[in-house]
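Before a colleague's protein record goes any further, I have to sign it off. What it holds is a sequence and that sequence's fold in token form. Would you go through it and say whether the fold makes sense for this chain? The record follows directly below this note.
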Amino acid sequence: MAIDPQEILDYWFTEPVCRHWFSATPELDQEIGDRFQHLWILASEGQLDHWMTSAEGCLALAILLDQFPLNMFRGRPECFKTEAQARTIAGFAIKRGFDETLSGTRRAFLYMPYMHSEELQDQDRSVELFERAGLQDNLAFARHHREIVRRYGRFPHRNAILGRPSSPEELEYLASEGAFTG
């Protein structure tokens, strides 16, 4: 059976799914795992790198490696395992101008691996990309993510998941009403 990047895009950008992009349900998490974990494994092993010949293929890989693990492995260290690969693919696509061919929402998901990074340099790139593309809603979140990484050097909400100790300042932040929890 041929595997096609369009399968990822058709699924991710449909109304029932896009309604839950940033407020997933356990049912959606399970569905994504059931339908796409085998593809995530292939992508994580580089077996789908041939998709990188098009904007759509790069976008599908970015979603598969950056977004889907957050659902499939919610609350577990694996949810961050392929973030760096997703950034590499996004960088590849940007270098080739593939991002310029994508609509705003699709382009935002190509850029999101930078927003998910705990490296300040990637956070700066995230802000620059969303700003340059005029994606104002995403830009506000990119700036917020960058400020968290600038302040703490990482995302404090990941500490428990990754088994990292939290500083007193991070614990205070996590207990606050305005804390970003993922």
Q: What stands out?
A: The mean pLDDT is 96. The longest helix spans residues 26-44.
